Amino acid sequence: MANFFLDNQDIQFLFSHIDMQQLASIQERFAENGDADYAPSDNAEVVDDYRRIMEITGQVAAETLAPNAEQVDRDGNTLNPDGTVTLHPKVRENLDRLAQADLLGFTVPRKYGGLNCPNLIYTMATEVIARADASFMNIFGLQGIAETVNAFASQEIKDEVLPQFAEGEVTGAMVLTEPDAGSDLQSVRLRAHQDENGNWLLNGVKRFITNGCGEILLTLARSEPEMSDGLGLSLFISERCDKIKVRHLEDKLGIHGSPTCELVYEDAPARLIGERKRGLITYVLALMNGARVGIAAQSLGIAEAAFRLARTYAHTRHQFGVPIEQLPAISEMVIDMQVAIEAARAFTYETSRVCDLENNTSRLVEWHADQLDKAELKSLKKELRQIKRTNGMLTPMSKYFCSEMCCRVADNAIQVLGGSGYMKDYAAERHLRDARITTIYEGTSQLQIVAAIRGLTSGVFDGWAEGYEQKEYADPLLSELKQQLMQGRSQLAETIQFAKQKSPAYTELSARRLVDGAITIMTGHLLLDQAANSDRKKRVAKRFIQSQMPILKMNAERVLSGDEMPLEEYSVLAGPVPTNAM
């Protein structure tokens, strides 16, 4: 019986390597179980539940989602004349199967019928789902909306909406971008106003909305028309109705099973989530942080699917009398694909673990302060500030690292398959088409770098690295590799200081090379930590560190050169603006 969780040795390893008992303890400390039919009795049972949930997810992904993916990709969804969308029958079949398996309330508290899973388990499940069908993962991944409702909505809204998510009765969408407000969400113009009875109504247009045809919509809107910046925005919840129409379904390169909608609001009724004027600066930022980790997980799933196809083909395809995996150029490509996936997975799962620390520590500080003594509360507040700073760096790094890796692996998979990979006879071309969006939505790679660089220039990265540098390894190989990482951090510190002494524009120009260096060092430490418990991981860590450190050195030299030609001579080097770009 196929199972996308049980057949993945690296996920199995990480499930055992990460301290799931500690995670369960934090997650369950103040779990909202209410009158749930079931609640675990101890942490060991919680961890057993996590494994059981993952096994079920892996089975559904392998037996239902993956077989449906090709036809969904070919056919897509249907926009109806009345402004509604009919999902592909197999997308609907996928949703029904997940609902039957109780997998549509992943992070919802048990009192609402959910599974109360931490972000780390949700990330694992998201990767498994994305390996089966990257486009369907977008619908599955929008369970993050339920997290936002649970964290910030009124009790009335939570009691009404969360059970619907847990039962699989509804899907959702986060409705943020507009034709003139893509990455710059402060420019959102969709208007929210109150009628004479105090009811909120929304008017305007939203674009590029994933699953915008869903039943529950979280919409960012301008509630303060006199304010033109992000402080004038609030977050609202709306239900699918005839006042919200899908005007257009985007015709996309990939993720065809995921309906990307242009929405028109015409006096659409809505309810406020949380407080006015906090829509962007508090609620959407929290929502997007979760979404970015979700895209990192999606990237891992696509890359895993592409790699497995390439690995199998390289083993079975014979040329020049041997399997092509014996040709040095192919063998190096294949192993570097696998190492890249394991490196990115290590980074993303660590980010998810830190997300859980932040979420649960925030819950303790904000919801249960009256149950803590003053000393513990003071200590938790201090710890929370540090966790937030660390997570503020890790989250954009994960999204950037994984999505760029995903595109490389999917591209290399086609290269391994050669002409066959370019044909629709194999899924390789679908994986590449699906991969390409990961570097764009939920914030482009360039925006992730801008967000991450603050962690390097403010010392957050150094604090993280120092903790890992204190680890001692009995194995001489691991000790020597750790020394390489420490030398790399010293070189990176010099480079960061040089960039900071120049103009802010130069720091931004250098940011990608600096962030790449930090990711290399952090991932190297994570792999060394894994290698202490696995002989195979020693080889993975060695390959990753020895292949990436020369790149770190090269990037440092580029930054230290002080070359500002892209800033100073853009017009000369870019040439004139084409008069006919078609």
From TrEMBL:
<feature type="domain" description="Acyl-CoA dehydrogenase 11-like C-terminal">
    <location>
        <begin position="475"/>
        <end position="556"/>
    </location>
</feature>
<dbReference type="InterPro" id="IPR013786">
    <property type="entry name" value="AcylCoA_DH/ox_N"/>
</dbReference>
<dbReference type="Pfam" id="PF22217">
    <property type="entry name" value="ACDH-11_C"/>
</dbReference>
<dbReference type="InterPro" id="IPR009075">
    <property type="entry name" value="AcylCo_DH/oxidase_C"/>
</dbReference>
<feature type="domain" description="Acyl-CoA dehydrogenase/oxidase N-terminal">
    <location>
        <begin position="51"/>
        <end position="169"/>
    </location>
</feature>
<dbReference type="InterPro" id="IPR009100">
    <property type="entry name" value="AcylCoA_DH/oxidase_NM_dom_sf"/>
</dbReference>
<dbReference type="InterPro" id="IPR036797">
    <property type="entry name" value="Acyl-CoA_dehydrogenase_C_sf"/>
</dbReference>
<keyword id="KW-0285">Flavoprotein</keyword>
<dbReference type="InterPro" id="IPR037069">
    <property type="entry name" value="AcylCoA_DH/ox_N_sf"/>
</dbReference>
<dbReference type="Pfam" id="PF02770">
    <property type="entry name" value="Acyl-CoA_dh_M"/>
</dbReference>
<dbReference type="GO" id="GO:0003995">
    <property type="term" value="F:acyl-CoA dehydrogenase activity"/>
</dbReference>
<dbReference type="InterPro" id="IPR036250">
    <property type="entry name" value="AcylCo_DH-like_C"/>
</dbReference>
<dbReference type="InterPro" id="IPR046373">
    <property type="entry name" value="Acyl-CoA_Oxase/DH_mid-dom_sf"/>
</dbReference>
<feature type="domain" description="Acyl-CoA oxidase/dehydrogenase middle">
    <location>
        <begin position="173"/>
        <end position="267"/>
    </location>
</feature>
<dbReference type="InterPro" id="IPR052166">
    <property type="entry name" value="Diverse_Acyl-CoA_DH"/>
</dbReference>
<dbReference type="InterPro" id="IPR053998">
    <property type="entry name" value="ACDH-11_C"/>
</dbReference>
<comment type="similarity">
    <text>Belongs to the acyl-CoA dehydrogenase family.</text>
</comment>
<protein>
    <submittedName>
        <fullName>Acyl-CoA dehydrogenase</fullName>
        <ecNumber>1.3.99.-</ecNumber>
    </submittedName>
</protein>
<dbReference type="InterPro" id="IPR006091">
    <property type="entry name" value="Acyl-CoA_Oxase/DH_mid-dom"/>
</dbReference>
<keyword id="KW-0560">Oxidoreductase</keyword>
<dbReference type="GO" id="GO:0050660">
    <property type="term" value="F:flavin adenine dinucleotide binding"/>
</dbReference>
<dbReference type="Pfam" id="PF02771">
    <property type="entry name" value="Acyl-CoA_dh_N"/>
</dbReference>
<dbReference type="Pfam" id="PF00441">
    <property type="entry name" value="Acyl-CoA_dh_1"/>
</dbReference>
<keyword id="KW-0274">FAD</keyword>
<dbReference type="InterPro" id="IPR006089">
    <property type="entry name" value="Acyl-CoA_DH_CS"/>
</dbReference>
<feature type="domain" description="Acyl-CoA dehydrogenase/oxidase C-terminal">
    <location>
        <begin position="282"/>
        <end position="450"/>
    </location>
</feature>
